[in-house]
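Notebook B, p. 112. Complex prediction, attempt 2.
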Amino acid sequence: MAAYRPLDSHSVIDYLRATPSLADVLDLDAPMHAREVGDGNLNQVFIVENGTSDKSLVVKQALPYLRVAGESWPLTRERMRFETQALLKHNELAPGLVPQVYHYDEAMSLVVMENLSHLEVMRRPLVARKRFPHFADHISTFLARTLFFTSDFYLTGLEKKALQAQFINPHLCKIQEDFVFTNPFMDSPENRWNPLLNAEVQAVRRNSALKLALAEMKASYMTHAEALIHSDLHTGSIMANEETTKVIDPEFAFCGPMGFDIGAVLENLVLNYLSHFAHTPDVDTRKEYQAYLLGLIREIWTQFAAKFEALWLENNRGELMPAKYWDYPGGEEAFAEFRRRTLAHILRETAGHGGAKMLRRMMGIVSVWDITSIADLAQRAVAERLAIRIGSRWVMERNAIHSIDDLIGMVCEEAECTG
Amino acid sequence: MAAYRPLDSHSVIDYLRATPSLADVLDLDAPMHAREVGDGNLNQVFIVENGTSDKSLVVKQALPYLRVAGESWPLTRERMRFETQALLKHNELAPGLVPQVYHYDEAMSLVVMENLSHLEVMRRPLVARKRFPHFADHISTFLARTLFFTSDFYLTGLEKKALQAQFINPHLCKIQEDFVFTNPFMDSPENRWNPLLNAEVQAVRRNSALKLALAEMKASYMTHAEALIHSDLHTGSIMANEETTKVIDPEFAFCGPMGFDIGAVLENLVLNYLSHFAHTPDVDTRKEYQAYLLGLIREIWTQFAAKFEALWLENNRGELMPAKYWDYPGGEEAFAEFRRRTLAHILRETAGHGGAKMLRRMMGIVSVWDITSIADLAQRAVAERLAIRIGSRWVMERNAIHSIDDLIGMVCEEAECTG
């Protein structure tokens, strides 16, 4: 294998021309044009297009620079490896819902993948009240398939441990352990919040019932290896248009609690919902879009649960439990009850992890664009106070959540919605 | 490194003489005598003694034979590696309570360790109503120290993941997953039970509430990486005399649920308790020893809980949660509540895993000598029926267990003991 060298917009073309396995996706002998579109911190990202056809692809390469605090070159390369192996796994399990991987070069810390520039990262269009008619279907399929097929309900014990070993991802886990479950809820220099929320932030930090519940969610994240989770599945990790949905950036992937992924999707929709109190002053327009968002939340969970259970029934080869274990008079009902209890557990965890993530966006290292794009701090505080109340309830009252309506009900009760 | 070759009672002496690092524990130039004392299946075990002093040691070497169904040479060698690295970890965390490791030779699949032939495996002396005045103290120290110091309450997130990666132990886990949580409770050719228990065994297999609870315990075993557990801590894995206790054979070690280890110790004491209905016909003698055993159970849990909490307070450097997280008015009480909830969780899991293991000993691949040494099948069935009732309650009613007295109470209610 060649040694590592960082590419530029010229050498990337030479690299691609010398990689014959890419001939299916790019005309390697035809004219090509490359432009760097990354944020230049950890990775560089090139979009490479054939001038003579509509063929194109993306080259993502880890950079050996120390531009971000606490980051180092071996970690950046490791991150690229986790992203690539998760992308390959997601392509296998949820084809069409993630960018295709065309080529991986470990020595070059480089992955060549599908160009998604016809799609938009979801945050901005959601703030612009755009609708995604297939999103609930697509994301529930992604969640059901990636989680079910990497769980002990599908895998054998040996297969699961091999997957777990492949995805032991300590440094990326630590980022979430610190910045989702810990630092936002105590004094830590990187925390940022709306100064109008001082009282609320201090109240969260001193709320023992909430802190205990958050500690339980962190224990779940650190120790419950239920399935291979994306582990950073906010709406900034989803690109979409009206027809297509693609989940990107899975470098945090490891075997963790399923509810963390579902909770990430749902809480980001709630934060977007709350942001419209500022972004959409017209009451009717706002209510209509907010009702759409709550409908999305309901649909995503309902479809996820139905698809997860259908996959289980159709692919019941895992060792938790083997089909034969339920082979007795009454066993079919017991297996149905086991599936029901499993989904009830995932819903409680969805609320707990989603609530923790909602809270950390209000008082941790980084908020979400839906909220930070509200220029007026008083208007922003309206949404943020509601997020703190809803997030706190999702975490603390998660064991009283028995249906998606219970979870949505907490949004409605706090936001006084009619939906 | 030299290639693998199986040793015999002559070549083992040559091997030791050529290993100068052992000079502290054996006089390498003095006369030596070696005898093979293993069961000859997977490993051979030599006791090597100096003729001229009381110095001695044990050599354990994996054997490349296919004598046991489903076993193979790479797995046997892997097993030796897990045993050795767990022994080293246990020596570090609980010195004096495990055999010392003097030397490890991976190429030879060989470990040289402390000779424990002055101690007895606990099962037979417990059947003979022997008492171990330091056992509760020793085993609770072993449990508290090995579990606390390998948990997220002590380790950083990065340290814990490194430990977890080192102890991904798929084949040995699968043995427990199959033979503790699954096969005993369905039709499987290796299952053995007292023919007088046909009705009870069939009833367990058809008891949906119990099967659901057992599935939940298996999920805990497969996915809850709380700490490095021994994972086979029955009284056949403990050697003792009146002064000393040594935990042996940790080849099943992996990061799993803490309650599995504590449950193993306690349920084996219950099985021994029940065996005395046959082994000790004299009522007063029996009641006295049974009361001693229940006292042991109470002491082991009580001391474990006190030691675990004391270690936590004295070594609060883990990331679940960092000390600073509880640094606010009322935080000290919240941290105390977190410790209380954690120990309550471990007790429920102790009951659940202990109950599952008690049940599997009645109807799975292998029982325990305490019970199988009862020659009369009708007498044996008395103990076994009680074990099935107690084990079932420990599993199904575990969430109603709030103190060690609740757990012991179920033994007393079923066995009609006077306590």
